Amino acid sequence: DSGVTQTPKHLITATGQRVTLRCSPRSxxxxxxxxxxxxxxxxxxxxxxxxxEERAKGNILERxxxxxxxxxxxxxxxxxxxxxxxxxxxxxxSGLQGNTEAFFGQGTRLTVV
Amino acid sequence: xxxxKQNSPSLSVQEGRISxxxxxxxxxxxxxxxxxxxxxxxxxxxxISISSIKDKNEDGRFTVFLxxxxxxxxxxxxxxxxxxxxxxFCAASGWNYGGSQGNLIFGKGTKxxxxx
Lengths: 113, 116
What we know:
A: mainly beta; four-stranded antiparallel β-sheet; B: mainly beta
């Protein structure tokens, strides 16, 4: 158990809809990262938050947004969903900034039909 | 443009032999490298890391080698065990990469199968 909790584990929704994925980081970790893993793809970095502030953006679509709340949990919002958004979405957390390993949750499998 | 590349999608080795997984990177600003292991239906699990000031880091059966001049790193597993069968991801990060610290850039992974 990494200590990172993601909910829900599975999500099936229709095209055009909006969903929210939730992540609770390890106790004490200030950084939260979101990654997307599509079929045959590696883990694509989407966005990072550190102590409530956006710190880095990767390949995140404009239809996607995220935030980190005062209690450090984070939510990833995906809107106007398309079939191609079907993927595994992972959240990870780490402690101090810098070269520390990130600990991953078990992921949310999103299926858009 | 892939900055971290794992050119072998899969690797099959016999139990007890050495597994060597390779990774190449293009961004010279990366200064920290990690390997993660991933089982199906689970999140990636941190395995081992290496800083760019070192060329080798060892942890039990796992050793990571870094060749900065070649921008290449490898993970050696000796001896390989059936339980090592998983997808292995190489990742890189850097203090000054993209103006942030800590976010990891991953390769596409290598699926290792260790046969009894």
